[in-house]
Amino acid sequence: MKCSLYLLFLLVFYLAKSSSAQSMRSSDSMDSRRLEQMASERIRLSYVDPIRCIKLLELYGVKVTDGKQAIDPESLPVVVLLPETSFHDTIPDHEKIFPRTETDPINELMLFYDSLVPEEAGRIRRIISEQIDLPARKIMIEAMVLEISSMELEELGVEWDFNSGKKGISDGNFLNQKLDGSNDSLVLGRIAYPAAGTSQLDATITNVFSEFNIRLQALVEDGSAQILSRPSVLTLDNRMAYINVSEKIPIANTKFVKDYVSAVDFRDVMAGIELAVRPRISGDGSEVSLQINAAVSARVPGKDQNVLGKDDIVLATAPTLSIREVKTYARIANNTPFIVGGLIARDSEQTISKVPLLGDFPFLGSLFRSKNETGQKREVIIVITPSVLPEETGVHSSMPKEDDLFDKFGNRLFRDAYRIRAEDTFDLRYLTENKGLKKLQKVADRIVSDHPQLANAYPYQNFSGGSIPGEDALVRRQIYEVLKRNDELDVLDLEKLIFFGSDRSLGSGFKVRFLMDHLRENAPFALTEQGDGRAIGLCFRSKRNDMAVDDILEEPVPELKIVSCPDEKSWRRFLFESNMREGGSSVKQVIFIRHLKDLERLKKAVLMKKIISLNASDYILKLKNFTRGRLLRMPNFREDDVELIDSDVATCFYHSELYYTSLQEALRIDYGAFKKVLEDSPYSIELMGGNQ
Q1: DSSP percent split of the chain into helix, strand, coil, nearest 5
Q2: Which residue of 190, 379, 569, 630 has the fewest CB atoms within a 10 Å radius of its CB?
Q3: Chain centroid offset of residue 678 CA
Q4: What is the pTM of this model?
């Protein structure tokens, strides 16, 4: 009996130990699986500070950490604030040593989540992008600084001169004949007249003392207004804009030893216009609150201080500066000028003009002197106009006019650039403002937010991020219009166009053929003005998704074929049917050439390909990026360049003619593909107007 109990005890102990070991192995296996399921990604913040973003995420109930401890797979998702770096200076002081800067981006967060539940991570991404990391509104601050000057000029003087050209005793006057040597009057003293544009009261008394004329004059000068500066600056809501239009004026610093100047050095003082404005835009954009700091400093004429040395020698001059400053708060309507006035300064200056020697005589000398006292009152007026810019367009009052001056051509060291004008862009509001398309774009953004791996997958990539199916065809056509309007860019020589032929001989893969030579031998009708009812086709088959090694070398080689093409209608039909899409992309790209006009279109297609490549195709082929006012980088076109005809050129050729047909086809196919993947998915509720 005791033996049986002992054996039973051993059995229970063994089973418990085995169960415990199994549980530990299961726990370890589960932890390992959870670690494998844990995914991470960096979230780059565009506008908000990372610390502020973390604080706001906590309000939404999102778990956040400071990154000092390992992430627990049981508490996913978690947002981690990346550690700060001490090697970062937003705007370094150029006068100091060039600072060491961290190369890793600093405005980022780390997101850890369960890869099997990506929707949890998508929720956090949407909170950040839709509620927290929002851009500040743009505002243009335009200022005009006016100075209104009124001059009060008081002058009393006497001018003496001899009569001339009259019958009488003056004809034989000794001074008039001998000293001057002419028949003109000898002027003993003349008081300088004021500048042109002044008003004067002139009273002349003739035949005083028989030989002298006496002229008494009283002068009055009117005030005038002058625009000192007209700066403008683009800033953001609640950010300060600073404008400084000044000059450095040297001020003398002196050292005295026993009442004599022993050394003179200089320090610079800024004089001019300083304006600091901090705007704050109301919720609806109709009003702007402004914090304004304005200062106007200028040199006071006639008030310079001289630094004298031994024997009263002028060693240096120190100017006197007038400073007028105002600090205020204001709230005004958008696009409304606001005046800051009352910055008044008054200066006075006295000058004495006299006839040499005669003006120095006691008592009688006053008859040969003129006393001029000038009093000047200057008032500075600052006119500030805030303009809140709309978010959906980049066209605003400060954008330069559409002038060739803003293009960049003819530079030796830099790329040419063409500024896109209004006539280069199509009015596509019927497309960009379509409510159905906007709803699909919103759903695509939601899906990509939850599943980032789908961002570059068809059909999501054609709707997410503001994308529009078929928009690449519209952009290519707009680039084609730019080339048509700028004939000077079209310098490519048709004789320099080449294509590849297959070469099966050992050691070489392609055989280079010049297009014009091939046309002369096989399709001379393409070199005529009208053609003969035929067309030669160059067909490129897309192999970029194929895995076979042999397919890699087949894509650049076109299939050549001559077809019957009696009229333009047939040519357009061949072009469309041959370039039709299958699924998400085209499987072939075909060019049909009938006559010289098509060759000119082919030449522009080659130039279109170069422009798209230079401006990054994934960027410039978006309608949101091909907008008025942007610079389009242009390649250097040279007549001696040899250019290859390939599938990208064929796509440009097709879209330059049938861009609208291509757009229709893309919308039809992509709409259908996207709605099909949404069937029976939780996102279809949002498409119907509900919320998940």
Answers
A1: 35, 35, 35
A2: 569
A3: 39
A4: 0.69
Joined together, the tokens standing for residue 201 give 């009261």
Residues ≥6 apart with Cβ < 8 Å to 107: 44, 45, 46, 49, 50
Task: Give the integer Cα–Cα distance in Å for 683 and 650.
Answer: 38
Query: How many angstroms separate the Cα of 36 from the Cα of each of 30, 40, 309, 324?
Result: 10, 11, 86, 68
Contact between 268 and 251 (Cβ < 8 Å): yes
pLDDT tens digits along 383-406: 888 988 877 655 555 566 666 666
- For residue 612, give the amino acid letter: I
Cβ atoms within 10 Å of 609's Cβ, excluding its own: 25
Residues in the chain: 692
C-alpha angle with apex 667: 666 to 671, nearest 5 degrees? 115
Q: Which two tokens stand for residue 469?
A: 């199916």
Statement: residue 470 has pLDDT above 90: yes
User: Residues 70-104: pLDDT tens digits?
Assistant: 888 888 899 998 887 776 666 666 666 666 666 66
Residue with tokens 């506008």: 47
pLDDT at 520: 94
**Contact (CB, 8 A) for 677 and 623:** no
> What is the per-residue burial (b if ≥16 Cβ within 10 Å, else e) of 108-147?
ebbbbbbeeebeebbbbbebbeeebbeeeebbbbbbbbbb
Contact predicate 687/440, CB 8 Å:
yes
H or E segment to which residue 322 belongs: strand 321-333
Q: Locate all alpha helices (DSSP H) within 175-269, ordered by sequence.
A: none
Dihedral (CA of 419, 420, 422, 423) sign: positive
The DSSP H or E segment spanning 350 is strand 338-354
Cβ(690)–Cβ(443) below 8 Å: no
Residue in this structure with the two tokens 């087949």, named with its chain if needed = 554
3-state SS class at 359: helix
